Amino acid sequence: MVQPVTINISAINKQITVPTGLFINNEFVPSVDSDELIHAVNPATEEVICSVVAASPKDIDIAVAAARNAFNTTWGKNVTGFERSRLINKLADLIERDAQELAELETLNNGKPVKIARDFDIGDSVQCLRYYAGWADKIIGQTLEVDNKSKLAFTRHDPIGVCGQIIPWNYPINMWAWKVAPALAVGCTIVMKPSELCPLTALKLSELVKEAGFPPGVINTVPSFGPVGGAALAAHPDVDKVAFTGSTITGRKVMEAAAKSNLKKVSLELGGKSPHLVFESADLDQGLPVRSPRSLCWLEASGTMPGISCELLIGPLSAYATTLARTFINLLVSKVKDQVIGGGYDVSSGGGPVVSKGQYDRVWGYIEAGKKEGAKVILGGTKRPGKGFFVDPTIFTDIRPEMRIVKEEIFGPVLSVGRFRTEDEAIFLANDTSYGLGAGLHSTDANQCMRVASALEAGTVWVNQYNMLNNNVPFGGKKQSGIGP
């Protein structure tokens, strides 16, 4: 057994106990062959919070064996949908009970404001678990007519088996729930590898898994470095499916390892470069100031929260549209300025630091590239003094399609604003990317909304809103943004 540690959160004068071992078979254990540790860092202060055990490939083998044994004995086809539903709902109840403490721990390790972690991420995670709990006892097949006199065919849905799940740092609890809930509902068992940058809440959630009453081995949590634990899961011959959320580059490696090992099933949610088209009929008074700039700002203002790197295009180039563009940009800048980017325990903060020094340097590399390539900075673009990986929201105009800030995913608080001449050009520019995760458009012309939404090459297209997710609506990407919902 590995003993938990008590963490002091000085900002709120509170202590939280956090497990630091690998969670395998409902116990927190050390590595069987490694002394390597993952050092969890507070991105707001750059201080080490604590250190947790880093899983080795042999630890991954043990976790997978535990998951396989549970699948064959106490889970899988050996438990009813009613029982799966009961346990998933119990887990949701416990997360809801501990929402405040989980949010505080999420803020400490990830940087996002407590109110966002609690009310959005954890609130949605609870609803996600309950949504899939509702499906657990409603999994049905079909009867098929073959020959009514002598033959009957029927289909049934079986669980895939052991699922290796690799999640990123931007929504640590949300991503955990999105991966865990559907797998549990259908009877799969899980080996979960959280991001090495944000492992603490996944370990804390593992305590609740045991408290909820799940049999040992159904959910196993193995913090590890990506090239070690992630690679081992993707290539493991006894893992039946791997689900990965992260960069397109790593997604390719996961898919290759899955193919070379046992041709395991793969779900990939990868990078994005979300275009937003603002047409001249857009209602600034009713829609955009309330919803879109705030949504764009909320998403991009904190490096801990971006789901899709954004590019905003306004047009066409008529006299009215030029006035609209100027008005919209002023509103956008005003809304972004209203956002307080600060410590996550400050109730006034609407965004926090980016998650790590590596991500901080990456984002600043793009900001400097934008300046060097001739884009105009109309907000931000200068570094803060002092500690913490804070990047103030930066907005560029005067962009060109070939610029790095336009073509590549930044995954930070950087927004590029450009113009288009015609609807066709807008669609071309929006689709001129290797990504296809999400997109948005803003118009009061219903025909235009339907026409353009259909033409945009993205898994999700929002109309006159953005980033509104629902658990009963599929979410997935086209092109190099992934495979599967």
Automatic annotation (TrEMBL):
Transmembrane segments: none
Entry's Gene Ontology molecular function annotations: oxidoreductase activity, acting on the aldehyde or oxo group of donors, NAD or NADP as acceptor
Aldehyde dehydrogenase domain sequence ranges: 34-484
Species this protein is from: Lyophyllum shimeji
The protein's name: Aldehyde dehydrogenase family protein
Family from the record: Belongs to the aldehyde dehydrogenase family.
Entries under PROSITE patterns matching the protein: ALDEHYDE_DEHYDR_GLU (PS00687)
Keyword set, alphabetical order: Oxidoreductase
Pfam families named among the record's database cross-references: Aldedh (PF00171)
Catalytic site: 269
